[in-house]
Design brief:
11-stranded mixed beta sheet; Spore Coat Polysaccharide Biosynthesis Protein SpsA, Chain A; two-stranded antiparallel sheet; alpha/beta; 310 residues
């Protein structure tokens, strides 16, 4: 069965201070975060990778990672494909607002893969390091996919304290998980700050403490091919709702939360205790590079990175 990893790499981080943060080197030989995610996915068993990028990013992307990953994947029997997220890639009948400046968010990003994904798949952010445990857990879940359960999804459930930046606030999907380990609600929450005794949500009126042991989503989902049809349907509904379509975003966590409330899907939360690393701010680069230096020194990864798979 073809089990795909879809990597959302179309964004250019505005808070990063310019440049393409997904392509910043962090490893000892210039590896970027995506290298580690792809390594861990292939090690877990994924046999196809789809990169979701923008056309204006393609040349830099191919130079920094595309050609290199294609070479590794070719030797390992892993397929590679590219999907392009553009603001005018819309379902039939949806009209692009003339003042729309950028693509429509993570929901549209995954929908861009509709012609490339034929089996169960995982979705990740390009600039997040998730750790080996999350890939193993999601792959094991996706192996159980059958068309008779088209609405049975999963997500990697990280612990909030393991996902915070030392350099500013972050946005996280705060999760409510029932006793059976299924997601009941997800609230996309901005302004989460690491504090001396845990975490807090920062607003204009101050800080509200939050349990650092809370489960959060880091946009690492295990989904079925049938979900792509749902994404198309709900994107059309997104347009019918109207609002300020020059700025609104079609976001995966919000959509999944809506589907949960309508009891149309189930989402198994696969808890992982690996520490997340990511590049939200330019100042994050140093700590991320130090983290990968430690992982290499501890033998979690070989040098060169893909040497243990070839």
């Amino acid at each position: 069965m073809e089990i795909t990893l879809a990597v959302m790499a179309a964004g250019i981080g505005s808070r990063f201070g310019g440049g393409i943060k997904q392509l910043e080197p962090v490893g000892p030989n210039g590896e970027i975060i995506m290298d580690y995610s792809i390594h861990d996915a292939i090690e877990a068993g994924f046999n196809k990778v789809v990169f979701i990028i923008r056309k204006d990013l393609q040349e830099d992307f191919m130079d920094v990672i595309g050609h290199r990953i294609e070479s590794f994947c070719s030797q390992l029997g892993v397929k590679v494909a590219y999907a392009f997220q553009e603001k005018d890639d819309l379902p039939e009948g949806c009209v692009l607002p003339p003042n729309r400046q950028k693509p429509w968010g993570t929901g549209q990003a995954v929908l861009c893969c509709r012609d490339l994904i034929k089996g169960p798949f995982a979705v990740i952010n390009a600039d997040d390091y998730y750790g080996k445990e999350a890939f193993r857990n999601i792959y094991a879940f996706l192996q159980q996919y059958t068309p008779e359960k088209p609405n049975s999804f999963c997500m990697a459930g990280f612990i909030l304290k393991n996902t915070l930046s030392e350099n500013g606030t972050v946005t996280r999907g705060l999760c409510t998980v029932n006793e059976q380990g299924y997601l009941e609600n997800i609230a996309e929450t901005t302004g989460i700050l690491k504090t001396y005794n845990g975490a807090a949500i920062v607003t204009e009126i101050g800080q509200t403490p939050i349990d650092p042991e809370t489960h959060v989503s880091m946009n690492m989902w295990g989904l079925t091919p049938e979900f792509l049809t749902v994404l198309d349907r709900e994107f059309r509904e997104f347009f019918r709702e109207g609002g300020d379509l020059s700025k609104r975003e079609y976001l995966l966590p919000i959509l999944i939360g809506q589907l949960l409330q309508r009891k149309e899907i189930s989402v198994k939360v696969l808890e992982t205790h690996d520490t997340w690393f990511g590049i939200t701010y330019k100042d994050d680069l140093h700590s991320v590079r130090e983290a990968f230096k430690r992982l290499n020194a501890e033998g979690v990864y070989q040098n060169p990175l893909f040497g243990d798979l070839l």
